[in-house]
Amino acid sequence: MIMATKIPEYPPVYQLKITMAGIRPLIWRRILVSGDIKLYKLHKILQAVMGWEDYHLHLFTVDDVVYAYPSPDDPWPLKTKNERRARLSDVVPDEKTKFDYEYDLGDSWHHIILVEKILYPEEGLERPVCLDGKRSAPPEDCGGRSGYQNFLKAISNPNHPDHEWLLEWAGGEFDPERFDLEKVNGLLAKIR
C-alpha cells in the first residue's frame, strides 16, 4: 500500500539570524519570514530590521551565485540573477545554510544570514516578525567599518574635534547599544 504524503497547506516559515560581519560587539537580528518570499522582499525586510534607509545598492550571494535587482545602470560588471524571481525557499532550501547580504557597495556592509530553522506551521505567517536583536546598526554613509569606529569614538568623547557635527549629522543622538523590538516590528508590519 502506498501512503500519500500530505502536502503542507502553507509555505514554510524561515527563522533567520542576521549578523553584521566584522563588527564587535555583534549587531544581529532574529526574524521569521515566509519561505515563499522573493529575495527582493527579503531585502526590504532586512532594511527594516537593521534600520537602513535603502539609499544604496545591495546584493545577495548564495554559493557563489549573486542575486540583485538588475539594471542597465548597475556600476558593477557582475553576472547576477534577478532577485525578484528568486524565492527564498528555492535559493536556500536547507537549515543551517549561510549566505551573504551586502548593502551599500561603497561602505560594504556585509550581513551573514543563517537559516536557523525551517518550520512548517499549521497556519501561514501573515507578515515578517522580528523575534530579537542586539545593538543599533551603523548610520547610513558613515564610511564602512572603520568609519563607524571613528564615528563611535567621536560621539562618545565631548572633547573630540568632530563630536558636535557628527552628533548633529546623526540626528542629534546615536546610541549604539539601542535595539527597539517594538519599533522594528512596527516597520515590518508595513511591508507588503
Q: What report would you give on this structure?
A:
- The model has no long low-confidence stretch (mean pLDDT 92).
- The chain is 23% helix and 26% strand.
- The radius of gyration is 19 Å and the shape is globular.
- The relative contact order is 0.20.
- It contains five helices and eight strands, in the order E-E-H-E-E-E-H-E-E-E-H-H-H.
- The protein has an eight-stranded mixed sheet with strand order 5-4-3-6-7-1-2-8.
- By secondary structure, it is α+β, with helices and mostly antiparallel strands.
- It folds into two domains: 13-136 and 177-189, Structural Genomics Hypothetical 15.5 Kd Protein In mrcA-pckA Intergenic Region, Chain A, CATH 3.10.290.30; 139-176, no CATH class.
- The chain has helices spanning 39-50, 88-91, 144-156, 163-169, 181-189, and strands spanning 13-20, 28-34, 58-62, 65-68, 81-82, 98-103, 109-119, 129-134.
Summarize the model shown.
Helix content is 23%, strand content 26%. It has 192 residues and is α+β, with helices and mostly antiparallel strands. The protein has 2 domains: 13-136 and 177-189, MM3350-like (Structural Genomics Hypothetical 15.5 Kd Protein In mrcA-pckA Intergenic Region, Chain A, Roll); 139-176, no CATH class.
> Which residue ranges are poorly predicted, with pLDDT under 50 across at least 5 consecutive positions?
none
Order of helices and strands: EEHEEEHEEEHHH
N→C terminal distance: 44 Å
Binned strand content: 25-35%
Mean pLDDT: 92
Strand order across the largest sheet:
5-4-3-6-7-1-2-8
**Rg measurement, Å:** 19 Å
Please state the overall shape, judged from the principal axes of the Cα atoms.
globular
Main beta sheet? 8 strands, mixed
For this structure, the CATH topology of the largest domain is: Structural Genomics Hypothetical 15.5 Kd Protein In mrcA-pckA Intergenic Region, Chain A
CATH class of the largest domain: Alpha Beta
CATH homologous superfamily designation of the largest domain: MM3350-like
- What percent of residues adopt helix (DSSP H or I)? 10-25%
The strand count comes to 8
What's the number of domains? 2
Q: How does the helix and strand content classify structurally?
A: alpha+beta
CATH A-level architecture of the largest domain: Roll
- Discrete helix count: 5
